[in-house]
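Q: LysR family transcriptional regulator ArgP, please. Structure only.
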Amino acid sequence: MKIDNAQLAAFAETLREGSFDLAARKLNVTPSAISQRIKLLEERMGQVLIQRSTPCQATAAGRPLLRYAEELALLESEALSALGVVDAGAGAPSSVRIPMVINADSLDSWFLEVFDDLATSTAITLDLRVEDQDHSLLLLREGTVMAGVSASPKPIQGCRVEALGVMRYLALASPSYVEQHFSAGVNAESLNAAPMLMFNKKDALQQAFLAQLTDAVIKPPTHYLPTTRSFGEAVLRGMAWGMIPEQLAEAQLQAGQLIELAAPRCLDVPLFWHRWRITSSALESLSRLVHKAAGKALRQAQAS
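A: Structure for LysR family transcriptional regulator ArgP:
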């Protein structure tokens, strides 16, 4: 059985863009043409491949096909780039698209150096997805991304995993907040009453830090702020305490605008680079840049 290229392109672009309409614009066809191609592909495969939701998602049957489509697109774009073929739409040599996933704290801190290295090159274009470091592997399993940063050292099928280093988080608060909520010390009673800040419902950093301090069940008033900048600003303004990467808090700590709640207690999170196990010069290049940036900013893991 051979897969029709037009049907495969419609399938993959719908999942990349999230809807039939957006995929149609990208491929310069009508939404009905996209729908028809996907319907024919599903009939040929004998299975439903796309969950018609907002956004559209691959079904369990569609995930292996999505990975195949992404691998094919990567190899095709690398071949065109090597041949110096010009993109008719952009008027420039073809670049290699790499979808990857990363957690927000890494994206806003050490990973920025990767942008510096890519700024002078058009050989690679990144399609970045932001997800918590404990949940990013799901996108790799689904075939939605080719690479990503994760806190898990366990490789998934078809991927290799490489250690990047350790990201240290500090429990921080403003001096006025500490005076208001922890004047009698940091203990189970004060921690249970003091407002705490979390990135989102998946964020487990604060609870992991609390487990280091006490065996008591701590359920403080909790705020949720899902951007790195607003998270840091809320802590700085005395709204709550929260776990912040040491790289992002260095200036405020030196200026005395933030202080640690329970120094020298901290939370070290090992980070790992997961990538598809395929031969790709672009993926190799990106991996080298990621390791270079991580090597400069992250702590080295302690030998056990």
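A: Brief note, in case it's useful. The first strand starts at residue 50 and ends at 51.
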